[in-house]
Amino acid sequence: MTTNITYKLKGLGILLAGVLMTTSCNDWLGEETPGSTKLEDFFTEGETCVQTINGCYAPLAWEFNASYFSEWFIGDIASDDALKGGQNVAEGGDAYDIDNFKVNANNTILLDYYRAKYAGIIRCNLALDKVEDFEPDASLDQRRKDCLVGEAYFLRAMYYFQLVRVFGGVPLVHEVLDSSDRWLQPRASVDDVYESIFSDLMEAEKRLYNKSEYAPEDMGRATRGAAQALLCKAYLYHKDYDLAYKWGKKFVDEQYGTRQYTLCQVYSDNFTLAGENGPESVFEIQYMEEPTSDYGQGFGFTRGTFTTILTRPRMSYLGNKAGWGWNHPTQNLYDEFEPGDPRLEAAIGVPDEAGLEEQAVTYLGSPYYNNKTAYSEGGTWPQIGHHSRGELNYRLIRAADVLLLYAEAALESGKDLNAAKWALEEVRSRARNNSPEMNALPTFPGYLGLSDTPEGLRNALRHERRVELAMEGHRWFDLVRWGIAAEIMDRDKGSYGRSECEEARAEMANFVPGKHELFPIPSEEIALNPMEQNPGY
Predict the structure, then answer these.
(1) Which residues contact 151 (CB under 8 A, 6 or more apart)?
(2) What's the rounded Cα separation, in Å, for the pair 302 and 59?
(3) In this structure, are residues 105 and 116 in contact, taking their beta carbons and an 8 Å threshold?
(4) Kind and range of the H or E element at 329?
(5) pLDDT per position as a tens digit, 211-254
(6) Which of 348, 332, 342, 327 is nearest to 96 (CA)?
(7) Which of 196, 193, 294, 210 is nearest to 250 (CA)?
C-alpha cells in the first residue's frame, strides 16, 4: 500500500528551489524580479503546509544520483552480514571499497548519501520556519498543524541520525539559509548532533498523532510511537542507557500490544507488499509503482525503489524478473541462524539448482540473495512496474527492533533484567511459534544462559538482533555502537575475517580501529565548506 506522501508533491523540490533562488537573488540584485514568487505568497492556505511537509519525506526515498546510495550499502555491505555482490569485484568500485575497508573521501556513494540527507534537512528547516507560523484555516486546524510540525521535527532528527552514524559530527543547520554569507557552516561535535536529535524528537513526540489517529491514506507518516522508538534508539547509540530505557519503556507501555503496534503473527509477512504499513511497522520508507523510465535521472526523479532490482538474484533464467545480484548475504550470517529458525528463509534466498548452475549467481563464494528486499512471495517473482523501479517499501523501524532496543537498554542501564528477558522472549516466541523445531532458549556459541550472567543475556540479545533484523541495514551500526567492529571485522584477527573463504579474504583490507568506525566526510563537501576530516582519511 503506497500512501499519498510519496506522490502529492511531484516537482515541489524544483518549486521550493526556485522560491529560495528568487529570495537569494533579491538579496544580490537589490530589487525584485517581475513575476517572482515570495515565500509568504506561497504559504497562504493549509494544503500548502501539508504539501511542504510531504516534501520533507521525499529525500528518505532517494537512492540514486551519480551512484546508487541506499543505506544498506553501509548497514549491510560494510558488515559481516553481506558482501557487495554484483557481477564481479570490478563492478561498483565504490561499493567494493565500502565492503573491504578501502574507502577514500572521493566515494560517490558517500557523497550522494550525505547530500540527500542535507536536502531533507533543508526542506525540514523551511517547513518548520513557515508551517509553525501558519494561522490555521478551514483546511488545516490547530491540531493537524501541530502534527505536521511534529513530522518535520521527526524527519530532521532522522536525517541527522543517519548522518551522525556514518560520518560522526556534521554541520548543524536549523534555519533556512537564504543568503550566500550563511552557506559556510562549522562541523558540530557528535554530542551536539545527538543533542539536536534528542531535542527534535521530544518536540515531535509532543505533537505527533498515534498511528491509529491517521486516516488509511496517511499511513506511513511519522507517529508518536516512531518518535519514542527513535528516542530509545538514539539514546542507546549515545550510551545514555537510563534515558534509552525510559523511552523504550514508554513505547512498550503506550504503544505496544493491543494499543498501536504488535508483532505480525507470521514473521515473513513483514516483507511483503500486502504487509506494508502493517501492525509491526513503526516507520518505513514509502514507494510506489513506477511504470515509466527515468533512467539516469537522480535525486527524486522516481517514486519507485531501485533496491528490488539491485538485490534480486542475478539469474538469467528469470528473464526480465532477474536482478543485479547486489548485497549478497554471507555464509557467516547464514550460519548464525539456529536450526529451524524460520527467519533464515525469510531473510536469505538460496537459488534453486537451475540458478546455482549459473556462475553469475555466486559472488566471492556466496550464492545467496536478500530475500527481504528482492520481492519474492510464495516462491514466485512478481513482475515490477518498470524493470528498475520497484514498489516495495523499505522498513526502517519495526516493533521487534524496538523491543530488542528496549531489552538492551533495560540490561545496560541495570534497570530491569526481567524486562530485558521479557522483551527478548517476546521476539523469540514469534519465531519459535512459526517453527516448533526451535529451542526455547538460544543455542549458539558463546551463549551462557539468560539467568546466569549479564554477559550471557548481552550475547543473546546481540545474536537476536542479528537474526531478527538480518539484511535490514542495521548490523554495521550495531557493531560500531557496541564497540566490537574491529573484533568482528578484522581480516586476520576478527571472527568474521577469519571465517570468510580465501577468495573473499583476498579482497579485504585490514580494519583500522579509530578510523574505520566512521566514513570520510566527502572531499567535495570539504572543498565547498572547509572542515576537519575524520581521522585516518
Answers:
(1) 53, 56, 204, 208, 221, 222
(2) 11
(3) no
(4) strand 326-329
(5) 999 999 999 999 999 999 999 999 999 999 999 999 999 999 99
(6) 327
(7) 210
What is the Cα–Cα distance from 193 to 321, expressed in whole angstroms? 42
**What values do phi and psi take at 380, rounded to 5?**
-110, 160
- Cell numbers at 243, concatenated: 534515558
- Which domains are seen in the chain, by residue range? 1-83+103-208+517-537 (1.25.40.890), 307-392 (no CATH)
Query: What is the predicted pLDDT for the residue at 316?
Result: 80
pLDDT tens digits, 90-99 = 999 999 999 9
Which contiguous run of DSSP H or E holds residue 84? Answer: strand 82-85
DSSP per-residue string spanning 148-173: HHHHHHHHHHHHHHHHHHHHSS-B--
- DSSP type of residue 208: P
The whole-angstrom separation of Cα 6 and Cα 29 is 36
Report the alpha-carbon distance of residue 49 to residue 45 in Å, rounded: 7
C-alpha dihedral, 525 to 528 to 532 to 534, nearest 10°: 10
* Residue pLDDT, tens place only, 257-295: 988 999 999 999 999 999 999 999 999 999 998 887 777
- Interatomic CA distance for residues 454 and 241, integer angstroms: 15
What per-residue confidence (pLDDT) applies to 328?
94
d(Cα 399, Cα 432) in Å, to the nearest integer?
17
Q: How far is it, in rounded angstroms, from Cα 438 to Cα 96?
A: 36
What's the grid cell of residue 356? Answer: 546455482
